[in-house]
Amino acid sequence: MADAEEPEKKRRRIEDLTEKMAVDGGHMDTGCEWDGRWNHVRKFLERSGPFTHPDFEPGTESLQFLLETCKILVIGAGGLGCELLKDLALSGFRLIHVVDMDTIDVSNLNRQFLFRPKDVGRPKADVAAEFVNSRIPGCEVIPHFKKIQDFDESFYRQFHIIVCGLDSIIARRWMNGMLISLLSYEDGVPDPSSIIPLIDGGTEGFKGNARVILPGMTACIDCTLELYPPQINFPMCTIASMPRLPEHCIEYARILQWPKENPFGDSGLDGDNPEHIQWVFERAQERAAEFNITGVTYRLTQGVVKRIIPAVASTNAVIAGMKHFFFSLRH
Ligand SMILES: [Zn+2]
């Protein structure tokens, strides 16, 4: 065996380590700092490096700012949001607000790792905040189970940085517009103290992006709208008269047959209702058989109706990590 450590010594070492790592109930009490706790963050903030910004001045003030002053807002507590909250809390950000309007669905659990089966149905913001607060001593995450539109200027103005983990372009544009409206200009130049940096990012399957927007100074969300991929829609003539793909058959059932037959009364098609999906699936199968098309499955039906793009945990982790890296560039 390579492990030459005596069992007793090893046991004591593990006990010692466990004690250092113990966090339950450690929130904001005196035992929340320990020797070397921020050593890894210090390596970033107190030394220069090949990727640091030319204006970056290494020093101890940055960590002080992080721990004591910096107020950061995370928008979205989903796939990206969970990663962001974890990264921020572990690297010394202590005053974090999180806004999310969603509740936890069982299908989130594979990648939104701050949630457990018992949390299904509860607000994402609340559960994420509870989890991080109980796990990271000294960190205070304040949840808001709300829409971003429920807050006004005075709310957004209090933050030093805003990080978005959103899945909607509309929400991004709203947030972008809010930050631009917060700018105050002097002789046509934005007053630097009125600029709140927006760190935006998104993922779609294996693809993702992350970038920093300085409102009033760099290209914003609206300047770069054409960078977003268009929503995939099939031409109606293909769906109605010459389907070639299983997706065309599903769209036929969804767009044309459902409103005509209203199989469940007046209730609209609900992508989360298995009976609704089953109905669309069966109609799509009939249509596919008529045109000798294969590949219509229940799963595909669900994917097309709900416009599901598989979310990949590792992509979220990489993108959140990149956004986090931007902080160190900016410091
Ligand atoms: Zn712009």
From TrEMBL:
Domain THIF-type NAD/FAD binding fold residues, every copy: 64-322
Class of the enzyme per the UniProt entry, highest EC level: ligase
GO biological process, one term: protein neddylation
Enzyme Commission no: 6.2.1.64
GO MF term set: ATP binding; NEDD8 activating enzyme activity
Record key words, sorted: ATP-binding, Ligase, Nucleotide-binding, Ubl conjugation pathway
Domain of life: Eukaryota
Catalysed transformations (reactions): ATP + [NEDD8 protein] + [E1 NEDD8-activating enzyme]-L-cysteine = AMP + diphosphate + [E1 NEDD8-activating enzyme]-S-[NEDD8 protein]-yl-L-cysteine
Pfam families on file: ThiF
CDD domains, per database record: Uba3_RUB (cd01488)
Active-site residues, as the UniProt record annotates them: C237 (glycyl thioester intermediate)
Pathway: Protein modification; protein neddylation
GO cellular component terms given for this protein: cytoplasm; nucleus
Family to which this protein belongs: Belongs to the ubiquitin-activating E1 family. UBA3 subfamily.
Its biological purpose: Catalytic subunit of the dimeric E1 enzyme, which activates NEDD8.
Name by which UniProt lists this protein: NEDD8-activating enzyme E1 catalytic subunit
Organism of provenance: Solea senegalensis
